[in-house]
Predict the 3D structure of the following.
Amino acid sequence: MGTAAATMPVALDVNALAKFVDPLPIPQIAQSQGYRPSPADPKLKVPFYRIAAQPTASKVHRDLQPTRFWSFGSSIPGPTLETRSGEPLLVEWVNALPKEHFLPIDRTIHGAEADQPAVRTVIHMHGAKTKPESDGYPDDWVVPGKSSLYYYPNQQDAAMLWYHDHALGINRLNVYAGLLGTFFIRDAVEDALNLPKGKYELPLVLYDRLLTHDAQLLYPVSPDPQSPWVPEIFGNAILVNGKLFPYLDVEPRKYRFRVLNGSNARIYHLAIVSSASASNASMNDVQFHQIGTDQGLLPSPVPLTELEIAPGERADLVVDFSEHRGMQLVLKNDAVVVVQFRVSSQKVTDTSSLPAALRPVPKIPESQAVQTRLLTLDEFVNKAGNPVMLLLNASHWKMPITEKPVLGSTEIWTLINPTNDTHPIHLHLVRFQILDRQPYEPWQFQTKRQLHFLGPPEPPDPGEAGWKDTVRAHSRMLTRIIVPFEGFTGRYVWHCHILEHEDNEMMRPYEVIPAVGKRENRSSTRQ
Ligand SMILES: [Cu+2]
């Protein structure tokens, strides 16, 4: 670590900056450019959006120079897309970036070799149920001046999705540069709950960065100039909707916060604290409620004082400020302040609700699964003990596809994590439920393929007991998920959402195959 640090410019100490001097920005709502024929039914017209990835500069703090970013539109996060369940839309994703990258590409990484263009983008809508050709397959990138037209049918429950770059081998750099934004799907179930809405419902998009002393993005590099990839990046600047230490004026009432962890690698532990006096002598944890997770509403609100959220995950929170009139609260990540809430002292009437029942999430019985796959999460280290590559199931990206679930079938995927890290594992196309996690002894499994458990299975946290698309696979645990493969056939991917891991091979293709081919496929692959 010492040598790695020695090669790095020193990052700006953001804690020396004045706190809570910038208002929390709210990303603008995307405006459609009219209507186009639906690819599913040319007689129908659907809203058409054109969103360009382009260079921009924005001030992340009042006292800093503008930071150079790449963004969708003119801000980070990009424009918020919004629609209703069952109402499709088209997005033309344009690559309007320069031909040179401003962050350190590692030409030894798959897909980023010297003969590949430096600047490539392909956009994945995380959590969307789309056909493969609109899913943003990592090889489907386009170069500056080109674009892709993607169709989103939105036949799925109300949820917060998000869009971000997914280009093979440089996705960590493109997202770090700022290529991310959010997408809200609404539906009647959500409407009927009378949750806080309008100006009382806000996205909180979190991503951490390192900045240079002139406030430019600093992406760390390894000591090896031929191979600058680093296994993870943790920034001391935690941006919320694009600002550092922002404040939000709130009324003493309920708010709904749609939280997205858009960081490359950081797992957040968020808490809200209040202080009765300016001296901060007694900081009290404020209880809030989690009402939804990645793929929508939970069965019922979960009271929390701390939220753990990994890259790619979303949490839908209701925070009630009514008992904090005239006070200042802060959202913290561990000991670091992230955003300040200034609660006004006026009396207000809050007609919104926090119902005891939200949306039923029927548990999928394990007996419904037609197949169980044991899948390892693997880390390879060099002689110095530093990670050099990560794999899923000991397989490289380019090796033949081994996971071929049948459309309409349900499978259990058991993620075996012998590494010292939590890996947030994301499957494209599908939503799933977490069955359990169980501690095991990695050495016996590695050497003898024997599973020796060190404790009983643990159920998912209450805040995870809904439909998920990303699951934290903890160190030295087996994490079991049950996955109905619904929607479409074709080639998708599953990967770790620590973007440095994903870029360095912790990603694999999988293919949903048609049900009619089920018998034929089974017999031909049986060994
Ligand atoms: Cu990982």
